[in-house]
Amino acid sequence: MGSEARYWLVKSEPDTYSFDELVADGGAVWDGVRNNTAALNLRGMRVGDEVLFYHSGSGPAVVGLARVTREAFPDPGDASGRFVAVEIAPVKPLARPVTLSEIKARPDLAEMKIVRQSRLSVSPVTPTEWKTILGLGSVG
DNA sequence: GCCAACGTTGGC
DNA sequence: GCCAACGTTGGC
Q1: Which tens digit of pLDDT belongs to each residue from A41-87?
Q2: Which residue ranges have CB below 7 A from strand C?
Q3: Would you give the end-to-end CA distance of chain A in angstroms?
Q4: Straight-line distance from CA A61 to C1' C4, in Å?
């Protein structure tokens, strides 16, 4: 792990917490993650890292961009002390959502963690994947 | 609503 | 420590 820019993807059910709600709130504590792999990724986040915000459920798609505003701290809702939370703030919505089916259809995105392990709620994104997603979403 | 993937739990 | 059973997530 060097000091290069890092990119991540976080997943949320829009019925539970949507990108629009993140925008309305101006930021959010990203807590409640109870998976060790996802927690490891949360611990890797640094302030300023950029985040793809993905809606799971019906019409799964990357819908917006966010930024890490606070690094990992103990999840207040976790009595075990094993899990952590971060804080993120909205940057902007994608001009158009990039759907999971589009991602799957592209050979250069087929290795994305979201494709390979659909249940992982926090995952790293490579710089190449990041640029490709932003291109598809007409951002940048 | 169904099913696959995968994490967790608990009996042994 | 192994593994079967079970629960949850998420795509379709």
Answers
A1: 999 999 999 999 999 998 999 999 999 999 999 998 888 888 999 99
A2: A 11, 13, 56-58, 60, 100-101, 104, 114, 118-119, 121
A3: 25
A4: 36
